[in-house]
Amino acid sequence: MPREIVMPQMGMVQTDGTVVEWLCAEGDQVANGEVVAQVETDKAVIDVEAPCDGTIVSLAPTGEPLAVGRIIGLVVE
């Protein structure tokens, strides 16, 4: 079953964020806790980690504002 990578919320009033860079590609193997993306909020650039060991099967585009809580990637265990 796929595990979701979601757009994190870093502030109480933050409504969206932008994936500025993926550090992996679809088909790559990742480890639980490995940094897979950098996301820009209105105040900072933060690292996003893989939720489990597995294979990246889907990634959201970079450079577009995406809502907090939106799925930005999927990892299949």
Question: Could you describe the 3D structure shown?
Answer:
By secondary structure, the protein is mainly beta. Helix content is 0%, strand content 52%. β4 (35-40) and β5 (45-49) form a beta hairpin. The model has no long low-confidence stretch (mean pLDDT 96).
Shape: elongated
Give the number of helices: 0
- Rounded to an integer in angstroms, the radius of gyration calculated over CA atoms is 12 Å
Q: Note the main sheet.
A: 4 strands, antiparallel
Q: Structural class per helix/strand content?
A: mainly beta
- What amount of the residues lies in strands? over 45%
The spatial strand order of the largest sheet comes to: 1-8-6-3
N-to-C CA distance? 7 Å
Low-confidence stretches: none
Beta strand count: 8
Mean pLDDT: 96
Topology pattern, helix = H, strand = E: EEEEEEEE
- Work out the helicity level: under 10%
Topology (SSEs and partners):
Blueprint: E1 2-6, E2 16-22, E3 29-30, E4 35-40, E5 45-49, E6 54-59, E7 65-67, E8 71-76
Quick structural gist:
This protein is mainly β. 0% of the residues lie in helices and 52% in strands. The protein has strands at 2-6, 16-22, 29-30, 35-40, 45-49, 54-59, 65-67, 71-76.
